[in-house]
Amino acid sequence: MREVDLHRLDLNLLPVLQVLLQERHVSRAAALLNMSQPAVSRALARLRDTLDDPLLVRTSRGFALSSRAEALQPHLIELLQQMEHLIQQPRFDPLTDSSLIRLTGLDLELALYFPHLVKHLRQQAPNLRLETVRQELDSFLMLDQDEVHFSFSGLQPASAEGSLHRMVIDEMPFRCVMSDQHPLAQGVMSAENFAAAPHGLVSITGKGPGSMDAVLAAHGLERQVMLRLSSFMSVADFCEDTDLIFTLPLRLAERICHNRRLCLRPLPAALEQPPVKFYLYWHSRYHRDPRIIWIREQLLVALNLNTSNNTTGGISSS
User: Fold this and answer.
1) Percentages helix, strand, coil for the chain, rounded to the nearest 5?
2) DSSP for residue 40
3) Beta partners for residue 164, in sequence order
4) 132 forms bridges with which residues in the sheet?
5) Cα gap 117→131, rounded to integer Å
6) Which residues contact 115 (CB under 8 A, 6 or more apart)?
7) What is the DSSP secondary-structure string of 57-122?
8) pLDDT in tens, 172-197
9) How far apart are the C-alpha atoms of 34 and 207, rounded to whole Å?
């Protein structure tokens, strides 16, 4: 008996073999397979050659299985079931799924969006477990290294763009946050007055200028950053009783100012910028995962967003 070379085995023949062994008759097998009798006969000939065994042997009472076919039949049924399971589209049932979903984002971004998602998922997927992971500088690297499934971010990735997908979950203008007793809290605020005031800056990396510095430079202006923070959550504590101004996206600024002696003011008209977008990011490895697709959809529902206006796709095409 020669050894079977798996490279010679045509996997398309295995379902044919299963029906042949089940029916022990070429014509009946052809009818069940919706194939012509000659095609099934050719398949049987190829199987006999590949396996070096007759498989079906003629007897006085018709065809019978060879001893090898008898031993092969139960394993073949199990193998085909496993192959079907292997290639079948994975299923997700939110009512029974108990998997762990990990998310990251900056403190205030999580505070803005994550509670809405949790409240919604507790009703729709009571067994699903959620975990926030501390963001250590680069959430995109965390996605790339499979440390988290999702990242809330208003930033653009510096690397791994081709492996990331995103959808817009919010869009908002910038606002100036300052004490309600600040000299610029009332009246007209010019670009020159804004630039001359002492500023605070939230910098996650702790390096480089803020985006507003580039805007001011384009107008021939420069500001002095007197305080650099690593977290949004403490802005009010440093702004309420000082002359510092922070420039933040609107909804982050509104949350910071709630019940504090602070005020929000629009940027001077000359310095107005396009609204900043906030995204939910995920990695390509999970792009077609039914759990991840469902959670993305549920976030849009929880935030009362129109899915038609929140396209998903690779970073390069968003």
Assistant:
1) 45, 20, 35
2) H
3) 283
4) 103
5) 12
6) none
7) EEETTEEEE-HHHHHHHHHHHHHHHHHHHHHSPP---TTT---EEEEEE-HHHHHHHHHHHHHHHH
8) 999 999 999 999 999 889 999 999 99
9) 68
Q: Please report, to the nearest 10 degrees, the dihedral formed by the alpha carbons of residues 170, 175, 180, 184 taken in order.
A: -170
Interatomic CA distance for residues 317 and 315, integer angstroms: 5
Q: Are 253 and 127 a contacting pair, CB within 8 Å? A: no
Q: What spatial distance separates the first Cα and last Cα of the chain, rounded to whole Å? A: 59
Residue 216, CA distances (Å) to 201, 265, 300 in order: 14, 17, 35
Rg (CA), the chain: 32
- Domains, in order of start, for the chain: 6-87 (1.10.10.10), 100-171+276-317 (3.40.190.10), 174-271 (3.40.190.10)
Please give the model's pTM, rounded to 2 decimal places: 0.69
Question: Confidence band (pLDDT; 50, 70, 90) for 205?
Answer: low
Cα–Cα dist 92/54, whole Å: 44
The two three-digit tokens of residue 47, written as one number = 């199987």
What is residue 222's predicted lDDT score, i.e. its pLDDT?
A: 95
Six-digit token string for 273: 């910028």
What is the rounded average pLDDT for all residues in the chain? 87
CA 204 – CA 104 distance, rounded (Å)? 14
Strands, E, within 149-245: which ranges?
A: 150-153, 164-172, 174-179, 198-202, 224-229
The neighbour count for residue 64, using CB atoms within 10 Å, is 14
Which of these, 293, 236, 250, 233, lies nearest to 101 by C-alpha position? 293
Q: What is the mean pLDDT of residues 100-117?
A: 90
Q: Quick count: other Cβ atoms within 10 Å of Cβ 216? A: 19
What is the model's pLDDT at position 49? 87
